[in-house]
């Protein structure tokens, strides 16, 4: 939707670091969300970036470059429970109209 | 703790039947969203409301879908008549419209199967 691109699947090892990239269409951009969704469950909010740079929140960090239409989610000290889909979504216009990417399914292996 | 609730959680129906899904947003939230999620399309925005007024329903097939907020505690999504291609998980989400983060809180979803 609306040219949001992220890898379909990724695999990483428990205890490692993984970076999930997202590119998006820059026109009408207001902010960039990351949501986590475990299989069979609802998405839950992780982060929202409006300004360029890195925002850290515990083991998770999110980066934004508005000029490049690029964001990434960085997960450190991976745990098995981090196996989930990670959804990148952009906020556009003056409203809260949010368009989601199709998500990156992350599998954490021992 | 405050949560978005949705009913029913699962619905199996035959093609041509009417389906009504209900959502109770978190008390105090003034924006409500309806999403549909499928494996092929991911999470798609169908409609959203602010202060019970519809702001955007461009993502919704108008001929068969309708969304309303009869009051601040209830949002409904109706499909009439339903078709097999409507099979999906339908999520309702609510959020405060105040800045800065516009976080949306999702309900558990209604899994709809149309046969």
Number of helices of chain B: 0
Beta-strand content bin of chain A:
over 45%
Please compute the radius of gyration of chain A using only Cα atoms. Answer: 13 Å
Straight-line distance between termini of chain A: 34 Å
Mean pLDDT value of chain A: 92
Rg value of chain B = 13 Å
How would you spell out the order of helices and strands of chain B? EEEEEEEEEEE
Overall helicity of chain B: under 10%
Topology order of chain A in helix (H) and strand (E) letters: EEEEEEEEEE
Structure overview:
The complex is a heterodimer of chains A (110) and B (115). With 110 residues, chain A is mainly β. Chain A is 0% helix and 56% strand. Chain A has no helices and ten strands. In chain A, strands 1, 3, 4, 8, 9 and 10 form a six-stranded mixed β-sheet that branches. In chain A, strand 3 (29-37) and strand 4 form a beta hairpin. Chain A is globular, with a radius of gyration of 13 Å. With 115 residues, chain B is mainly beta. In chain B, strands 2, 4, 5, 6, 9, 10 and 11 form a seven-stranded mixed β-sheet that branches. In chain B, strands 1-3-8-7 form a four-stranded antiparallel β-sheet, with no helix packed on it. In chain B, strand 5 and strand 6 form a beta hairpin. Classes of the chains: A mainly beta (110), B mainly beta (115).
């Amino acid at each position: 939707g609306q040219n949001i691109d992220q890898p379909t699947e990724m695999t990483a090892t428990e205890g490692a670091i993984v970076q999930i990239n997202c590119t998006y269409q820059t026109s009408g951009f207001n902010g960039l969300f990351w949501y986590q969704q475990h299989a069979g469950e609802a998405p839950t909010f992780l982060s929202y970036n409006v300004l360029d740079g890195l925002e850290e929140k515990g083991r998770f960090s999110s980066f934004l470059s508005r000029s490049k239409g690029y964001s990434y989610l960085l997960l450190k000290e991976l745990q098995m429970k981090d196996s989930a889909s990670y959804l990148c979504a952009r906020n556009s216009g003056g409203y809260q109209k949010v368009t989601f990417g199709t998500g990156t399914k992350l599998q954490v292996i021992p | 703790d405050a949560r978005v609730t949705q009913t029913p959680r699962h619905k199996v129906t035959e093609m041509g039947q009417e389906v009504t899904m209900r959502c109770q947003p978190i008390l105090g939230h003034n924006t409500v969203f309806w999403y549909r999620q499928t494996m092929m399309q991911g999470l798609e925005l169908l409609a959203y409301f602010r202060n019970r007024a519809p702001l955007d329903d461009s993502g919704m097939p108008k001929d068969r879908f309708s969304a309303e907020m009869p009051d601040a505690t209830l949002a409904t999504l109706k499909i009439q008549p339903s078709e097999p291609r409507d099979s999906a998980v339908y999520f309702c989400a609510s959020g405060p419209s105040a800045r800065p983060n516009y976080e949306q809180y999702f309900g558990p979803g209604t899994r709809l199967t149309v046969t």
